[in-house]
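[Solved] Which block belongs to which protein?

Original post:
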Amino acid sequence: MSQNIYDDPDFFTGYASLPRSVEGLNGAPEWAAMQALLPSLAGKSVIDLGCGYGWFCRWARTQLASQVSGFDLSEKMLIKAASMTQDSGILYHRADLETLSLPAAQSDVIYSSLALHYLRDIPALFTTLFRALTPGGMLIFSAEHPIYTAPVVQAWSTDSEGNRAWPVNQYQQEGVRISNWFADGVEKQHRKLSTWINLLIASGFEIVAMDEWGPSAEQIAENPALDEEKERPMIFLLSARKPD
């Protein structure tokens, strides 16, 4: 089972203070870029993986999506989402995305924001999502960028003669990374960018677009905390398509 860190009381309280929790989609600085990757949702069956408070689910309905399903492992998140939603066209489900089961060829658009980097078994999930999409259906997601999940550490590796040579970030070594963010021991999975792309291709997807997102000068002026993201991307956005 995936780590259910969002039901940790300290983590949930800390996450609730973030702009993207308080302000919804408009509180996420990458939202405009994510929105640009989305197809028209009118009349579409839409899934949101890691739906959290349900902000995207509700937005999708304003875009005339016919049916929206939100999936999340966190009971606390789903309770919050349900309390904010008065729409029979939105259904929330508690599920571990590692073992997610979806009906074949029933979904037109699958969306996920900053959830997939927590998962160990991404190949199995991509296979499930490919099968769940209708021909021509789209997968649009964001995840933490591997430059961010493999940061340079304050240690130095050495060459064959024992000399200090270069800073270490272990980009090539994929696997679990532990961070202390709102709570200790938060597990995230580090994967090279090429791994993300190749796993999508191996599952049958066509890559449509990718954005190694960074803030604009205007966004930094409004929120100086984003300045650290202008030189190296913290997240990436990707859209992929199931062929007709």
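(Second protein starts here: sequence line, then its structure tokens.)
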Amino acid sequence: MRIINENDVKNLAIGGTILGGGGGGSRHMGLKDGLSALSKNPIKLIDIEELADDDLVICASMVGAPSSKESYVDEKDYAYLIEEFNKYSKDEIKAIFTNENGGGSSFNGFILSSLTNIPLISTIANGRAHPTGVMGSLNLHKIKDYKSIQVYAGGNPELGKNVRGIVESSINNSSKTIREAAVIAGGLVAVLRNPVKASYLKENGAKKALEFAMDLGKTFNQSKEPVREACEFLGGEIIGEGKVEDFSLTMEGGFDVGKFKINDLNLTFWNEYMTLEKDGKEIYKFPDLIMTFDKNTSMPITSAEIKENIEVIVIGVKKEKLLLGSPMFEKDLLDQIDSVIK
């Protein structure tokens, strides 16, 4: 066990953003939430091996479209998640894990942990960000008759957009319901979902992925050539650099979907970057990691922050180099990409 400190939070904000692969939420909001959580109570980070196999653990997530300007979740929403789940469940939650790495999503469990003193687990559902709820649900959709329990809350009450509730259904139906709730809320809801035994997380999650993101961020923050050293840390490559052109973005069903080009590179995204083509040839495809960095500042920037005419550096990392959860190897889930990005 380790007690998370301020440097850990700063490193995780950077490392999580890079591993978000274009998605995973806002680094600025993640950093704010992480530091705010630390200011209230110490946050403990434990290894999955510190738990008994039968201990109940639960996933903390955020669901929505990163580019939304009305996204809003406050501390009362987080408190509601825990209170409502405890009313519903007879079993005690022993630890919390996040659904994915990302600038915001690496911190999904921080405020919950701070409010409850329940520790975080370094093993998480997926070591990189992904667009759909099912992709972060540990292949529970493959278990016959499994019922997903998901508590959600978010939206600005001053705008009349606050929504809260609990849904129990299949993984697919629950995820669709939560996605629709995010749309109603103005773009984002916090979610507590899919309690499982620690042994199941151990078999299907991305082991030590939260610490891996911290180590990546530390490498970046201490480097004089941060993009190059981060790329070397990940075992990836710098693909190219240049000015963003032909940028397009639409919001479809609570997702950001779009594309742009940089010289001879063509990128598509579905929240996260999905494909990278060079001279018309696809060289990286999700769950490979594709990420962009501001050429002037070297800071990682997400698909929600990309704009026409800014200059960026593009890197790629093959999936074999990443810490991934079990759904990242399921063809039926990955086949959705082609239908969305066309």
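Accepted answer:
You had them paired correctly. Confirming on the second one: The two ends are 45 Å apart (CA to CA).
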